[in-house]
Amino acid sequence: MLEAADTIIQGLLLGGLYALFAIGLSITYGVMRLVNIAHGDLLVLAAYLALWPVTSLHMNPFVAILPVVVLMFCLGYTLQRVILNRTMGTNFLAPMLATFGISIILRNGLQQIYHSDSRSFDIGALGVDSIHLGPYIAIGEFPLIVFVVSVILTLATSLLFSHTRIGVALRATSDDAQTAGLMGIRANRTYAIALGLSLALVAVGGVFAGMRTTFTPESGPASLLYAFEAVVIGGMGSLWGTFAGAVILGMAQGVGAKVGAGFGILAGHLVFLAVLAFKPTGLFERSR
Amino acid sequence: MLQVRNLVARYGDFQALFGVDFDLKQGSIVALIGANGAGKSTFLKSIAGQMPSKSGEIRFNSEEISTLPPDRIVREGISLVPEGRRLFRSLSVEENLKVGGFAGRKGRWTLGAVYDLFPQLKDKRHTPATALSGGQQQMVAIGRGLMANPDLLMCDEVSLGLSPVVIKDIYKVFPQLRAESLSLIVVEQDIDAALSIADYVYCFMHGKVTLRGAPEELTKEQISAAYFGLEAA
Amino acid sequence: MMHENLAYVVSRSTAVSNAAVWLGVAAAVVAVAVPWLPYFGSPAFMRWATEVMCYLILAQMWNLMAGYAGLMSVGMQAFVGVGGYSVFIFAQHLGVNPFLSIPIAGVMAAVAAALTSPLVFRMRGGYFAIGTWVLSEVFRIGFSNVSALGGGSGQSLTVMTRIDRSTREIAIYLIAATTLILASVGINLLLRSRFGLGLTALRDSEAAAESQGVDVRLLKLQVYTLSSLGAGLVGAIYYTSVLRISPFAAFDLNWVVAATFIVVIGGIGAVEGPIVGAAIFFALRWLLADYGTWYWLVMGSVAVIVIMFAPAGVWGYIRGRWDIQLLPLQRRLVLLGPSKPGGASAAPSPHRRTGAWQG
Questions:
Q1: Which chains touch C (3 or more CB pairs under 8 A)?
Q2: Which of A110, A167, B73, C196 would give a disulfide with A161, using CB separation of 3.0 to 4.6 Å?
Q3: Cα(A178)–Cα(A184) distance, rounded to whole angstroms?
Q4: Which of A112, A232, A276 sits opposite C293 (nearest CB)?
Q5: Whole-number percent of chain C with pLDDT over 90
Q6: What is the pTM of this model?
Q7: Domains of chain A: total
């Protein structure tokens, strides 16, 4: 019984990491109706970007997150302004196809530079130490940190959207970009900020993922699928819904892994399909 | 203040305006009347910068503005209250009003001033804007347009879908605005409402101006002819 | 404008298109004759040609879904895998004639598509794209857990050793060629039919099409199933040709990546686009053969540039520039005036057909 609780808690904490993956995807879809197929590869890119300061400058991986966040924000802004804004039009295929192309470029570019060796960030004792609650439950320190950061960032993003000027501009543009233009809001810039924001969150998720496990240039697609599943399970229109979806996914994978090695990921897929079958709009959908 | 010469506008292959000339004196209210599809909204959109496919001259305070995008036009001092209101669904009343001010023009129109003009909205400031009644939504839309502190406010069919009582309430506002030295262009299908407040009237049909003049000078027959296209023999 | 005395004919073909049809027929004849031609009849060429034809068929299927029904799927490889594995199941394990197993495999893929469609169609747009990918992953994991089919490392089609090599290679090649010809002709005929008209309406505006009585749901389902049938055939043919299958290869994302890029770069046009795209795809592959991942990098960059600057693709650009349609689907009004006997296209050109991804 308590072992089950331990599994659930592990899954919950994993969900925190997945939430970091998923929030960014939720933002770009919410603001621009864009499903960013390169999302997973951008997560991996963030990890690789942190490699240099960590290995060459001996920076603490946690500290390295900050410059990567700045870099990834700028990358997102630029990508949207230079490439994706050109493809935004009345149909949804072109922007998605463009992100598909970017995904391939990223993956193979990273492959070209870093080859297929697995890398990861050494966080020393933090990765192993746990807080023990009784004989059966051990809460890993690192997963807990990730979870807490995830909650904070989700909260921060939510507040950004509800209480700041840029948040109001993002929401207005997402509702009606044309009319927002009448008020002086430039859609091109707003979309660019949205993607920048998305990638800034991805930066945190990517580096954390690199601390948790190994990564290679091929690690992108799996991360995209988890992020996507979290968003769908959680439901559209709600950041906290996405967070909840991520947590559910984490728990499903955790329980699945306990049932059989290799079954973890499949369990996640099956939960996703089940939500799709019985409540396609998501479990915590908020109607707009 | 506003001078338009030979404005031609298209939606793809479809031509909506065929060489329109238009003048507006500062501090006046000009009404555009005409049937559905006559080109009135297209005309306003062209001035607001929302029609990419157009040619002709648009001068505002002697500056050529026909090539500017909408976000620049509002900074120049022209604000459009669009047809159908188009309030932002995810935003509250107050947030909708605030967005109106994002162009950054300073002036007498602040949140407080808008609430003074439309006291009904004050209690509902945190309600989602689209949950309001039609008349109140129209007030939000006009308030949002005012928040840009324009020199020229353009209102596209504010009476659409509203009851006569509500229309009267809203139309009371226009002379007040003119008194504050705001110039107005008002597009209307309701001829009486339009004539009641206008200093000058333009009538559109099939993308052309068929009649122009001060309301006092125009007879009902002239207007009908211009509106419906019944040619006098 | 009324011209009562003007004689006219409504026709689909133009001089260029008629020439193209004859060219197509000639190409088909040559393709079928290949095994008996000198040099081209070599096993190496036939194997390479089989691969090219597989990619071409898959691209046509992707184009049918995305370009005509507006369904972008990043999960098409699910049915490539089902098709491939079906051949192994039927030929290797159930003793069915391997060549007969191929069409059976196609049907199995179509059945799999139909069965999973209720789930998948609960999503639209971008969600549909990735949702189909998740489904493909589920299939992959599923098949890699079946030890009878070789589990994660796959298995070989040993049953083929009973057939002599030369016969086998020729047979596979001819099956591939026939499938391609049937697919191309079939798609063209389909698009000219009522079905095709419904598809075009659907692509232009789903809501409007529905209000005109087009059963949008059924249409999408039919296109999805048909495309999956094609994808299944591709898997069946390809893995019979290479004689070995594994989950990693059969459900590889690169199948749909290749199909997508071929269509995007090649451009719109039911048959012309994929042909142009495949030509570019394989030319690039040959040019960059020694440079490993550079091949995909260049391919991805070209695709992004095409999407940004020429959304109708290379063929779309050519068609727009010179107003050629090799295999036209639209009807034109041909005026038969006295000054131009035989008719020439005198009416203003109809509204350009655009691919669904054209902004």
A1: A
A2: A167
A3: 10
A4: A112
A5: 36
A6: 0.87
A7: 1
